Amino acid sequence: MKAAAPVCQTARVKRLEQCSLDEMKALIATAETPLVFGGLCSHWPLVQAGLRSSKQAMTYLAQFYQGMPVTAYHVAPEHDGRVFYNETLDGFNYQAGKLDLRHLLERLQAEAEADKPAGIYMGSTEIQRCLPGLGIDNSLDLAPIAPLINIWLGNPSRIAAHLDLPHNLACNAVGKRTFTLFPPEQVGNLYIGPMAFAPGGQDISLVDPDKPDLERFPRFAMAMEAALTAELEAGDVLFIPSMWWHHVRASADFNVLITHWWRDTPDYLGRPNNALLHAILSLRSLPKAQRQAWKAMFDHYIFDHDPEALAHIPEAAQGMLTTPLDESNARKLRADLTNKLKR
């Protein structure tokens, strides 16, 4: 069998030092590529506790815990922390279950003593529900944006490349993390696995960037040429724009990440991935000529949309074509679409 291809060197995400919070907010307002803000959250009490020791970071976190069970993953030692599918892609390579956070932290301390530790991982968990009060001194004030703030923790882990709809400010509070990021247009070179059946519920790349098999996944070489890498120490913050694919490797015995997610559009406009699912239902099986005709329609009304192109329609008569779509017209459109999907 041909050996896996070596990992190529990728460009680094631009790193900015000594930025204030206001300077960071101004920069990400228009940023279209990832940015690292060195040490931006290094003053957090959680970061400072982790710099002293993993045990002190765990003790600091535990004081906020109110007993809500958390979802935790156990990855057998032979998988080296990779949270992934089984070999036939009809199941996963980990066990998941609800656990008391204090028990989870005890397990992490025990695994740190093992020669070949099992992977112990808690994925995206809303901070206010799990650890109320932690975010007061350990989150970013993004006002007027009100982000969803989540916490992730565990020992060494590897999370397959996936994307998120919201923008993300990922704060590396404890330990070390390496992000490998791919622009949205690289989706065709990432070999995405089954939709709607993936670890964590997010579609993922089937390629392991640490050991890419270019015989099986040849186009991944082009993805790596376009990739960016960010090495995060405790206190560093990474801005991930919406829809950028990212593989995440945590390398310390104890790692904590706090993320801030937000969207550019109001909730009443719905989730764009629902439109993708509807398109798969109604367009994907059409003959190629018809798909191309619908592509022209989508380009005209959606992707290349220019408000000036509607100048021939009186503004009061534009209805669902109004830009930006207001809540009243959005609700009418949603109701009409819901009724049509029932037929």
From TrEMBL:
Domain JmjC: 120-278
Any Pfam family hit: Cupin_8
SMART domains according to UniProt: JmjC
Protein name, entry field: Cupin-like domain-containing protein
Gene3D superfamilies in UniProt: Cupin
The organism of origin for this protein: Shewanella salipaludis
